[in-house]
Design goal:
Dodecin subunit-like; alpha+beta; 23% strand; globular; Ribosomal Protein S8, Chain: A, domain 1; 6 helices; 3 domains; GMP Synthetase, Chain A, domain 3; 271 residues; 3-stranded antiparallel sheet
Length: 271
């Protein structure tokens, strides 16, 4: 027998515990429970977080092939230094989708009492790139960018509701998305090195579709490594698997079989 544990999320602590018990097939008296994170409702559904519990129990099952790496990718949120030659802000034409986006965001931040200002930095086809500036960007971005993603989703829904042609809004604040992407690439490279060194598959923390795409892209040319996604939203995660190449010595110890072709990732899954 060995001790093992799982971390499960839910809208409430009780829901998370019940999910965990259903997953492992045990009763409440057979496990110990630790509250990892309490649920938060947020404002207007923005910035809320699920409850997370860690359920520990005894099992005689063998160690799993895949080891989950729950490693927080930390992005420093600090006011960006002034950039000389910064592209001028694009003025939104009256009645345009750009104007609707600015009006929606301005009204939203006023209701939230957050001093954030939306500025259109460029337009490319049917995509608007909007930068948020102000003194409370940490609140606007939220944990792992979840609040920023929620605001972006609401903006897209607001300006496209009832319209045949769609305009995509891409929000950023303090260059968070670029910093997050760079941090994810560093994490992917570090995990790939461990996978090759120990010949053991490893999984990353749950990520949204775009962040999973960043991981897949960063490792698609790395020798002896393949990636695939598994799980359901919002707990879908990327797994980095060891895959021997033709140049790898046949005398090397074999790792677990790589995922079937049907499990290989689609690099457009985030679109």
């Amino acid at each position: 027998m060995r001790e093992t544990s799982i971390v499960v999320a839910g809208k409430t602590e009780d829901e998370a515990i019940q999910k965990a018990l259903a997953q492992i097939g045990l009763d409440r008296d057979d496990v110990s429970v630790e509250i990892v994170e309490r649920a938060k409702s947020g404002f207007l559904g923005i910035g809320g977080t699920l409850a997370k519990v860690k359920v520990t129990y005894m099992t005689d099952e063998p160690l799993p092939v895949e080891e989950v790496v729950v490693e927080e990718v930390v992005v420093e949120i600090a006011p960006a230094a002034p950039v000389q030659g910064k592209a001028p802000v694009v003025q939104a034409a009256a009645g345009s989708q750009a104007e609707r986006a600015i009006q929606f965001l301005t009204g939203l931040f006023e209701k939230m009492n957050i001093p954030a200002t939306p500025e259109i930095v460029r337009e490319e086809g049917d995509t608007l790139y909007i930068e948020l500036t102000g003194g409370s960007m940490g609140v606007v971005i939220g944990r792992r960018g979840e609040t920023l993603d929620a605001i972006q989703h609401l903006t897209n829904y607001s300006i496209n509701r009832g319209r045949e042609s769609r305009t995509r809004v891409f929000l950023d604040a303090e260059s968070y998305r670029k910093k997050r992407e760079e941090a994810l690439i560093r994490l992917a490279q570090k995990v790939a090195e461990k996978v090759v060194r120990y010949r053991k598959n490893m999984g990353l923390e749950p990520m949204n579709a775009y962040e999973r795409h960043v991981i897949h892209t960063a490792l698609q040319e790395v020798e002896n490594v393949t990636t695939y996604s598994s799980g359901s939203e919002p707990n879908r995660r990327v797994f980095v698997a060891y895959e021997r190449s033709a140049r790898t010595s046949t005398s090397a110890p074999a790792a677990s079989a790589p995922p079937a072709a049907s499990e290989k990732p689609s690099y457009k899954e985030w679109s």
